[in-house]
What we know:
The protein has 445 residues and is mostly beta strands. The chain has one domain (3-439). The chain has 3 helices and 24 strands. The strands form 6 sheets. A 5-stranded mixed sheet has the order 9-10-11-12-13, with no helix packed on it. The protein has a 4-stranded antiparallel sheet with strand order 1-24-23-22, with no helix packed on it. The chain has a 4-stranded antiparallel sheet with strand order 2-3-6-7, with no helix packed on it. Strand 18 (312-320) and strand 19 (323-329) form a beta hairpin. The model is unreliable at 1-35 (pLDDT under 50).
Amino acid sequence: MNPRLLRRPAAVVLPLSTALALSVVVGTADATPAHHDATARVVSTATLPDIPLAAFSNGLPAGSVADDRGVDLGGIGSDLFPAERPGEYWTVTDRGPNGQISVGKDKRRTFPVPGFDPAIVKIRAVGGRIQVLRSIPLTTASGAPVTGLPNQPGRDEAPYTYDASTPLSYNPNGLDTEGIVRDRDGGFWLVDEYGPSLVHVSPRGRILARHVPKGLGLTGADYPVIESLPSIFLQRKINRGFEGLALLPGGDLVMALQSPLLNPDKAAGESSRTTRLLRFSTRTHEVTAEYAYRFDPVEVVEPGQTKTSELKISALVALGGNRLLVQERTDKASRVYEVNLRRGTDILGTTWDTAAGPTLEQLDDTASAEVPVLDKRLVLDLNTVEGVPGKIEGIALEGSSTLALINDNDFGMTDGPAAFDAAGRLVDSGVETTLVRVRLTHPIR
Length: 445
């Protein structure tokens, strides 16, 4: 069936010289065989030094963090985009340290450093360490920190203090930032999980516009909020909004929904293997196409895993033309595929872009003729490359045959009441922010 027949109406320099003195040994290891790149191997490894979060944050909006509870800078691995010089990258933090604590039957979302302001961070990997070169705080139109706090009661998780004892206030300016690209004018585009949204940012970090799904009804934000995205994206799963972002050579953006929509309901979304990509024109500031992306079975991505809901997209990389790398992952495993956004695969405005049943998320392999999913080709199974850390969320391509990968260490946070000691100081997980470079045997650009 042709789905179109079913169309319906539709900068601050960071003063951290002493903190940046730590270095680690560069690691090199041969990889075990991969499906398409049997001898891909890690050729360098670098880690981020321990930088107190208060020192980092208070070098941006002064006084934004009174107490970092012993948390170090982390979370910068939400994405990776090549900067102007080789070996330098733009990254972005997520919403900041957060966890979950069960209180009775309720799982409460904790924000131990509620004053934390998400930031764009420029880094360089050199001599086995990650150097912070520059940091740009995200601010509202009036220059206030946006923070990483949830936006709307009833739609987002309620925020609590580090011990889950005291509610915190929602913040309509708050962003859970993930993907990042830099445009030709020196500004940035980010994606966010809360809306989900696409965020346009000036070179100095001021929010110029936040594009959200039609019907979101977000009020009180101190920057322009534009309802320009398809309303079906209101059905995103909590904490699984937009995660990946790519800048095509012609200037269009492609953003990836981390997990399938809860469309028409939670049961369909949790069991689905079909998520969505959106194409956005930076010239007209409107969505121009939508694509269906089908995950591999979860046991293929992570052998032994049985929960389909663990599947996520975390990174997109533009290769040239309409070609993209797409990273499928769980928290423990990761695979990289190539797709081509060919004509005839656009589902924008069709019945697949509605909640009419059966929805895109309800269809499975047995209905393959009905599903206009993108064709894909496996490029690399990162599970087979020795030395790659877990929870990779940022990928960049160097030249034609080297992938730079960075992980999200969650600021050293873990879930549960044991995340902090009796004095309210972090019990660090020991997971470091790590950037590795993986050499492929064949060029992919």
